[in-house]
Amino acid sequence: KERKHLERIQLAPQVYLNLLPADKFNRCRFTVQLRYPARRDNATACALLPYLLERGYADYPDLTALSRRLAALYGANLSVNTSASGPCRALTVSVDGIQQRFALRGEQLAEEYARLALGVMFRPALRDGMFDAAEVEIEKKQMAEELASEINDKRVYCLRQARRKFFGDDPAGIERQGYAEEVPGLTAEAVTEAWRWMVRCARVEIFCSGLDGQQAAAMVRDQLDKLERQPQPLPEGKPMPPCQPGHFTETMDMVQAKLCLLFTVEDFETGRDLPAMRLAMAVLGGSPTSRLFMNVREKQSLCYYCAASFNSFGGVMCIDSGIEPENAARAEQAILAEWGDLCENPVSDQELEDARRYTTNALAAVGDSISAQENWYNGQLWRDNTDSPAQVRAQLEQVTAEQVRQAMGKFRFSLSYLLTKEDDCRE
């Protein structure tokens, strides 16, 4: 029988198997994710792990052998990355490829994808119980180059600088990519200890699309039985407290300026407020018919782009825009005016329906790919929620204009960060 929605099974303390529908796809996917509390003392070591894990694991201990194995599995894909969710972080290993019904020689491809993902995560290519020191040095150089290149994407750089000012020393502000000044001092011992700590303490979330549930459960249990596990509870994300707005300006050699405004949220409950918050973002700046696009960009020509988003894990709304340097003050005032108007006055019926249509269409597209489907439920599980896109669409149909106004009124303006050319300054 075809599975329609997520099926979630607890295999052990803090170990969960999430079975996703895959029958309509020609590909399948197996993902292993470790969720752990962000720690400042090992953040850079944890950030280096994806670079090392992609090089190989115990069965295929170097990049050449691993690449050959992936090629033999009809060009399967391996990805290793990190992500952030408030005060928590995640290390994720995914392997995807064609469904085994397309295998020319009857290979059990879904099982092989699972074996690869579990091997990369839990059986890395250690030498004498540690990551190879020479490989650590190679990947440190790659990591240092990527950290140094952050400044080349001015939009990303501005967003991250604003985030650093906003969160300060809060655990939610610990750098997911690590800290450039700490990279030279990283050792194989430190990175190995970070991996062992993560395997021992993290919550394990397995996402399986295309493999029989009993077979997947048996493979996961077999792997975890060989590990020392003392899982820790994950900390809950808490919004930053409201504060007097801070204004920051940074100058450099550039043409187009970047402006980022951050707002903290008060009295937010996911189950109660998130549906209205989804529509509020679409009305303000998350859709082609939004206030920021239509009024600030189109009518006033104050920016090249202006987008709004809400991170429920960190309790922060972000509005970022690309502007001419001389328009910085006017653009900020116009953005705040649009937000203020939504706090005071309900949206029109047409605006609300446009936002609802845009948001529900995006939800309808979640089922179009395995990766989108997995990403959806991954985000939902961070909120301890398993609602499907169809269930959330039904919730959105019940949201009123007044609820959108109330949702927008929960925000408090906290910080603006302007990245602009060297001979310009904020008025």
Q: How far do the termini sit from each other?
A: 64 Å
Radius of gyration: 23 Å
Q: Which runs of at least 5 residues are low in confidence (pLDDT < 50)?
A: none
How many helix segments?
14
Strand arrangement across the biggest beta sheet: 1-2-8-3-5-4
Mean pLDDT: 94
Instruction: State the helicity in percent bands.
Output: 40-55%
Q: Can you tell me the overall shape? A: globular
Outline the biggest β-sheet.
6 strands, mixed
Count of individual beta strands: 13
Please trace the helix and strand order, writing H or E for each element: EEEHHEEHEEHHHEHEEHHEEHHHHHE
Secondary structure class reads alpha+beta
What is the topological layout?
Blueprint: E1 7-12, E2 15-20, E3 27-37, H1 43-53, H2 63-72, E4 77-85, E5 88-98, H3 109-122, E6 126-127, E7 130-131, H4 133-148, H5 154-167, H6 188-201, E8 203-209, H7 213-224, E9 246-252, E10 257-265, H8 270-284, H9 291-299, E11 305-311, E12 316-323, H10 328-344, H11 349-364, H12 370-382, H13 389-396, H14 401-408, E13 411-421
Parallel strand pairs: 2-8, 9-13
Antiparallel strand pairs: 1-2, 3-5, 3-8, 4-5, 6-7, 10-12, 10-13, 11-12
Helix pairs in contact: 1-6, 3-7, 8-11, 8-14, 9-10, 10-14, 11-13
Features:
alpha+beta, 41% helix, 427 residues, 5-stranded mixed sheet, globular
Overall description:
This protein is an alpha+beta fold and 427 residues long. It is built from 14 helices and 13 strands. It has helices at 43-53, 63-72, 109-122, 133-148, 154-167, 188-201, 213-224, 270-284, 291-299, 328-344, 349-364, 370-382, 389-396, 401-408; strands spanning 7-12, 15-20, 27-37, 77-85, 88-98, 126-127, 130-131, 203-209, 246-252, 257-265, 305-311, 316-323, 411-421. It has a six-stranded mixed β-sheet with strand order 1-2-8-3-5-4, sandwiched between helices. A five-stranded mixed β-sheet has the order 9-13-10-12-11, sandwiched between helices. A two-stranded antiparallel sheet has the order 6-7. The longest helix has 17 residues, at 328-344. The protein is globular, with a radius of gyration of 23 Å. The mean pLDDT is 94.
